[in-house]
Amino acid sequence: MEKMNEWSAKRSKLVIGLYIFFIFGAAMGDWKTLNIALGALPKVISTGAIALAFGCVLWTGNFKNLKAVSRFSMLFGSIVVGIIICSIWIWIMDLQTIGFIMKGVSKISYQLLNIAIVASAVYLFQDQAAKYTFYGIAAANFVIILLGAASIGFGGALNDIIANITSFGANDVVGTSSFIRSIEIHDITFVMGVYVIYFLLFSPGEKYRYLYAGIALFLFMAGLKRIAFLSMMAAVAFALFCMLLGPKGKARTLMLTAVFIVAFCYFYIMIIHEGIFTRFCIEHEIELNGREKIYDYISRFYEMSPSYRGKGYEFCVQLLKSMQGTSDQALAVTAVHNDILKMYVELGFWGFALWILGYYVFQTHWFLSRCGEKTAVCFLAINIYMLVTYMTDNTMFYYWSSMVIRMLPVCFFYAPVKETPLRKSDIIEMSRFRRWQYHKRQKDAKAQRIPRMKVE
Predict the structure, then answer these.
(1) Distance separating alpha carbons of residues 115 and 119, to the nearest angstrom
(2) Residue 377 φ/ψ region, left for φ over 0, alpha for ψ in the -120 to 50 degree band, beta for the rest
(3) Smallest Cα–Cα separation from 205: which of 429, 46, 415?
(4) Helical pair 276-283 and 247-273, crossing angle rounded to 10 deg
(5) Within its chain, how far is the Cα of 186 from the centroid?
(6) Quick check: 355 and 343 in contact, CB under 8 A?
(7) Contact 195/212 with Cβ under 8 angstroms?
(8) What is the C-alpha to C-alpha distance for residues 196 and 232, in angstroms, rounded to an integer?
């Protein structure tokens, strides 16, 4: 039996198995049959990770990593708390009832639980938390695919998947295939795109990284979301470009990109408000699946002005619910399908500014100064992927998406890649390109900014 001071959750098959089971059970709640019957209830299973971490702290008395984990938690939590405070101020100014305010606060507060699960997983497994979370979510995705395939036959299911991929998610294929609709698991599909980026570019120490990337890509393509595919390409291109730069070049590029995102988002909201975005899509035959009707309707309720103070969190959902069954009904949905627009309408001009500066500029600088350039590249590349999806979908507060994009940069920080010095004879035998790569890595390692934060 292991000595108490040598016991580690990272090496315990029981703890690892329980964690994967909790994630798998919660992810099965995304199966449409269960989701219709139980809603978000299965997500509660994932809180088992918190119980595991708490139990391990009591059992071992091991407080290593808690300081670093708590700092990450405070960083992520501050963004959520900022949204809550801004919304409460708006609700008070609008003289909303206490019941309405509490309902709105509860809608966003579950993200704090999401952050607690991230902190627990990283405390237990450090850099391996990303992989074990992937096991649980991917296993659930495969089971959901098998359950869907069993209803129509595996041959027909395979044909539908091939047709969906080769047509690049064409509406006529999705609309006519009950199987494709059943495995179109929005949240998990977006998460698989994040994992493709992570395993390809930010897990060089992982032995089976390409196998995991291939599995993630298959699951991503099975539930194909066209906007997610394009955003994944943008994120990969950004990350590869940053990797060509030295430490100072990375730092400048990251901060300039974060500032550009802020300016671009305001510009994006402006062209939606003026109807330019809708006209452009119609003129170029870009299919918005009715989103333009929602955007045009919501444009009546906000203005592009510093005096616009916002409507408070969840206003857009309540607005779209109130128009159901009326002459103003645009679509039979209660989601804006545009999280950037939604955040502006609900937080107002200055609330949106504080949120987006905090989310992109402050967090990027925080990762840059405390975790180093490479971790900051991981953070921003993943968030560029998600940003593109925010522009036409409701992914910002999806359960798994928001969990994974917080977890992966932290896991990457816990697993720095150590460059093993080579003998002169080995360097001489290298090709010119490999030799240039090696010397560049050595030079970058010396110039790398020393992170202000330690993992223990």
Answers:
(1) 6
(2) alpha
(3) 415
(4) 90
(5) 12
(6) yes
(7) yes
(8) 8
Q: Are 407 and 75 in contact (CB under 8 A)?
A: no
Closest CA to 189 of 395, 447, 436: 395
Residue-wise pLDDT tens for the chain (456 aa)?
344 445 677 778 899 999 999 999 999 988 887 877 887 788 899 999 999 999 988 887 777 778 889 999 999 999 999 999 998 899 888 877 787 778 778 778 889 999 999 999 999 999 999 999 999 999 999 998 888 877 777 776 777 777 766 665 555 555 566 666 666 777 899 999 999 999 999 987 788 999 999 999 999 988 777 788 889 999 999 999 999 888 889 999 999 999 999 999 999 999 999 888 888 887 777 777 677 788 888 888 899 999 999 988 888 888 887 776 666 555 556 678 899 999 999 999 999 999 999 999 999 999 998 888 899 999 999 999 999 999 988 889 899 999 999 999 999 998 865 444 545 556 566 677 666 766 666 665 555 566 667 665
Distances (CA, A) of 411 to 15, 97, 121, 368, 371: 18, 42, 10, 15, 11
In this structure, are residues 43 and 29 in contact, taking their beta carbons and an 8 Å threshold?
Answer: yes
Tell me the whole-structure pTM to 2 decimals. 0.87
CB contact at 8 A, 137 and 188: yes
Of how many residues is the chain composed?
456
CB contact at 8 A, 392 and 337: yes
Residues 378 and 194 sit within 8 Å (Cβ to Cβ): no
Burial (0-12, 13-18, 19+ Cβ within 10 Å), 375: buried
Residue by residue, what is the 3-state secondary structure of 220-241?
A: HHHCCCHHHHHHHHHHHHHHHH
Amino acid in position 285? E
- Return d(Cα 277, Cα 323) in angstroms, integer: 23
325: left (phi over 0), alpha (psi -120 to 50) or beta: left
Query: With the C-alpha atoms ordered 334, 292, 281, 263, is the resulting torsion angle positive or negative?
Result: negative
Residue ranges per structural domain of the chain: 228-392
**Element at 370 (helix H, strand E):** helix 363-371
